[in-house]
Amino acid sequence: MLQKSVIVLILCLFVSMLSFAPAVHAASISDLVKTIGAPSMEAAGDKNSSSNFLENIFNFVFEKLLNPLLGLSRGASTPEQPANSLKSVTQSQPEGTDVKQTSNSLQGKTIVVDPGHGGSNPGAVANGTRESDHNLAVSLALQDKLRKAGAKVVMTRTADTTVAPEGNSLSTELQKRVDIAEANQADLFVSIHANSNPDSKIAGAMTFFSQSGSEPLAKDIQAALVNTTGAKDRGVHAATFHVLRNTSMPSVLVETGFLTNAEEAALLRNDVYRSKIVQGIFNGVVQYFDNH
Ligand SMILES: [Zn+2]
Question: How far apart are CA 283 and CA 97, in angstroms?
Fold first, then answer.
């Protein structure tokens, strides 16, 4: 009975949040339906179904609603940056910012790069951009850069597909990404995303971690990302995302910017800006290994 009360309470919270955030993108709603409706496919004996149900609601509320809202109140110390120049679209790598390229701290390291969403789940869709496409483009370039610096890189996906076979529950899809990291005994797990918010004025980058051991990695990546992109610094935040909570190595989820902000969406589609994102995440990873 207590659990039922808690569920009702959470649903009320969710509905009340929706009432002042009516523009939550359609994918969120379908995610919720899928998340809540789908039977959990997680390993038997993990948790009973009602706690999974609760956990799924919690995860949804945290990932899709609380975190974007949290972004409103934290990490807002730096002023809004002007849009970066879009002039040299064909130029792929800003060599001048490649300071960390010579470090050999990535030799022998296994890094899992996880492009968020994919296939039937595009994630946020706004201003003509699908999050899953942006995530993949950034992730593939990051893979390339990390490999050139000597890291072994394992991608959870390299095309516009889900990671688990289509039709599986969201928790199975996310667990599959965790399984890849665990099977490869990865040293780091980096999940790449783009954000959305009902308020189209909200812009900036933020990085999430779950276990406290991952906070230094989150801080290094966030600092380097803001440094190379000039994005508004929305800080690092603890979160309960499945892929962060269930990986045993340091793991972060990078929200590279807000697709719902027209100006930032234009940047996120731009190859030069994407290469700055890649350079920032790369620098943060190198910084992390240099210090740990
Ligand atoms: Zn996402």
Answer: 9
Q: Which amino acid is at 108?
A: G
Query: Domain 95-291 is in which class?
Result: alpha beta
121 CA to middle of ligand 1, Å? 10
Residue 32, C-beta contacts closer than 8 angstroms, at least 6 positions apart = 60, 64
- What span, in angstroms and rounded, lies between the C-alpha atoms of 266 and 240? 29
What's the pTM value of the predicted model, to 2 decimals? 0.69
Q: How far apart, in whole angstroms, are the C-alpha atoms of residue 282 and residue 225?
A: 9
The residues spanned by each domain of the chain are 2-73, 95-291
How far apart are the CA of 96 and the centre of ligand 1, in A?
Answer: 30
Lowest mean pLDDT among 63-67, 138-142, 178-182: 63-67
Distance 64 CA to ligand 1 centre (A): 9
Lowest mean pLDDT among 1-10, 83-92, 169-178: 83-92
